[in-house]
Every structure is written in C-alpha cells, then in structure tokens.
Write a structure and sequence with these properties.
This protein is mainly alpha-helical and about 200 residues long. It is about 80% helix and about 0% strand. The longest helix is centred in the N-terminal third of the chain and has 18 residues. The chain is elongated, with a radius of gyration of 24 Å. The N and C termini lie far apart (about 50 Å).
C-alpha cells in the first residue's frame, strides 16, 4: 500500500510499542503484518536504520519476502552473513517454501544440498548449481530420485518424465552413470514396455 503521510510517521513511531501490545493479542496475522509494514514505512521516512533492521527481519521471517532485498541492503556484507543465518534458521522451522526461495536467492549451497536430502525432487532443479561443488552428492541424490520415481511410475507420461530426468543427469556430465541407471531400470522392470519405448525415443 501507499506509505503513511509524513505527519503520521512520528505518531506511528512514538505510539508504536503501545499499539503493538494492543494489536498482538487481538488482531489477525494479516492485520498485524500490515501494521508492521506501515511502521516500517514510517521509520523509513525518519531514516531510522536500526528500527528498519528489526522490523524488516520480522516481516521477512513472517513471509513478506519483498522486504528481503531492502533488509539486506541495510547491512554490510559481513554483518549480513550472521543476520541471514538467523533468518534462514527461523524460516526453516516455520515457513519451508519461503526458506527454499531464500536459500536459492542467497545461493547458499550447503543449505541447498541439505534441502535436497529432505526433498529429493529438488535435485532436478538444483543439480546444476550444486554439481560443481558437490559432484558426488549430486550423483547419489539424482540416482536415488530416479530410482524412487521409477518405483511408483505406472504411465507413459511418468516414464517420459523419468527419461527427461536421466537426460538432465547425463547433461551434467554423468554420461556413464546415466546409461547405467537407464539399463538398470529396464532390467529391473522388464514388463514395462512403455518405459522401454520412452527411453528409446528420448535417451
């Protein structure tokens, strides 16, 4: 929304703590966040960096990711490392998808790898960025994901998807491993003629 008029900025700031106590137990989460956003804009108008840092972190950890870049810009690179870790820890516990978005934005490779361990399908999207640093782990995770996908696949469309996954795996430089996993699946599931057909067409 629009920022509050400047003549309202000081009252928002001066009465902020009292209003916060009144709002917290009585208002909806969305209304509370809206209040924080107005409070952020008020402190922005007054140029109070310390308050902006605190409110910005609160907004980001509550899913208002549009404040992420603004918040980052309030810190030096060294300061941001610590602040960011705290925010990511909070999001990891409470807002998994927002956590995933931010670790991608931050290109936080150790956390991205860890995320793939708990959400195996993410390796398809993240393999390219992880592969140069974690080639062995990417290989293991990708093969595991392909094998698990094959276990439950029961349609031509699913077999096509598996073929595309193997294709991506091969494109990362795992040429021999891609051939091996494709052959392994065909041997493991000899009655899946549609899978054999899809592999023949796309691999």
């Amino acid at each position: 929304g629009l920022p509050p008029p400047l003549h309202l900025a000081k009252p928002l700031v001066e009465d902020g703590d009292r209003l916060l106590l009144l709002l917290t137990p009585n208002c909806s989460h969305n209304l509370f966040l809206q209040y924080l956003q107005y409070r952020y804009q008020a402190f922005e108008a007054l140029g109070n960096v310390l308050e902006l840092q605190q409110i910005g972190a609160n907004l980001v950890t509550n899913g208002k990711l549009e404040y992420y870049q603004k918040l980052k810009n309030l810190y030096s690179e060294l300061e941001w490392e610590t602040v960011c870790e705290n925010i990511l820890d909070n999001l990891k516990e409470n807002r998994t998808y927002d956590y995933f978005l931010l670790i991608q934005e931050e290109k936080h490779l150790p956390r991205l790898l860890q995320y793939c361990n708990t959400s195996p399908s993410a390796i398809v999207e993240l393999a390219k960025i992880l592969h140069p640093v974690y080639p062995e782990q990417v290989q293991k995770l990708f093969i595991q994901f392909i094998e698990e996908s094959a276990k439950t696949a029961a349609s031509r469309n699913k077999y096509y998807n598996i073929a595309q996954h193997i294709k991506k795996f091969r494109a990362l430089g795992y040429e021999r491993e891609a051939v091996t996993i494709a052959e392994q699946l065909l041997t493991q599931y000899p009655k899946r003629t549609a899978m054999r057909d899809e592999f023949k067409k796309h691999l």
